[in-house]
Design goal:
123 residues; alpha+beta; 7 helices; 4 strands
Length: 123
């Protein structure tokens, strides 16, 4: 079977089609869901259940729910080695919400361009 290098194909796709393909890829990643995330991290439901202190059926239930508590989401992602960030985004600034939601410290406002706390809120 003949193979073709990407650089030889790239010029044959219009910029509009490339953008459409990018949007489709992003949408597909958004649809991945928890099971695909877990598999991408190379963990089984049993391994994750052990980290969460629940049984395998509990992990399956989390992965198949359409609505999830933020605390459960955070525990799931942290057990996979990640972290959850929740932000309210406005034109002038964004606000970290997860400490409020997860019972931590007050949210800090963030400069959207620099993605750092505003000067007045740096500690």
């Amino acid at each position: 079977m003949k193979t073709t290098a990407w650089r030889d194909l790239n010029h044959k796709v219009s910029p509009e089609r490339r953008e459409e393909l990018k949007r489709e890829a992003v949408a597909e990643l958004d649809r991945m869901g928890f099971a695909a995330l877990r598999k991408a991290r190379k963990q089984t439901q049993v391994e994750l259940a052990e980290k969460l202190g629940i049984d395998q059926a509990g992990v399956s239930a989390i992965e198949n729910r359409s609505d999830l508590l933020v605390g459960t989401l955070a525990k799931y992602v942290r057990a996979l080695g990640g972290d959850v960030e929740i932000r309210a985004v406005f034109p002038e600034a964004s606000f970290r919400l997860e400490p409020l939601v997860l019972g931590g410290l007050p949210a800090r406002r963030v400069d959207r361009k620099r993605r750092k706390p505003l000067r007045s809120e740096r500690g």
